[in-house]
Write a structure and sequence with these properties.
Elements (H helix, E strand, L loop, with lengths): L16 E5 L8 E4 L1 H6 L6 E2 L10
Antiparallel strand pairs: 1-2, 1-3
Length: about 60
């Protein structure tokens, strides 16, 4: 798991799911969370970062 991304919902590092992207005029910042943190809040993710580049996570 990636260790560098901050989670939008908790203080732990290693967020792996993009939960939103800001508007292009705001710089298209990708906001990440842990999949469990997002799920616990009813937030669906756009995509997930994995250690396996050929793997698709739904």
């Amino acid at each position: 798991m990636m260790q560098g991304r901050d989670c939008a919902y908790c203080p732990e590092p290693g967020a792996d799911a993009c939960v939103r992207v800001t508007a292009p005029e705001a710089g298209s910042v990708h906001v990440f969370a842990h999949r469990k943190c997002a799920k616990d809040r009813g937030v669906s993710w756009w995509y997930v970062i994995t250690d396996e580049p050929d793997k698709v996570v739904r």
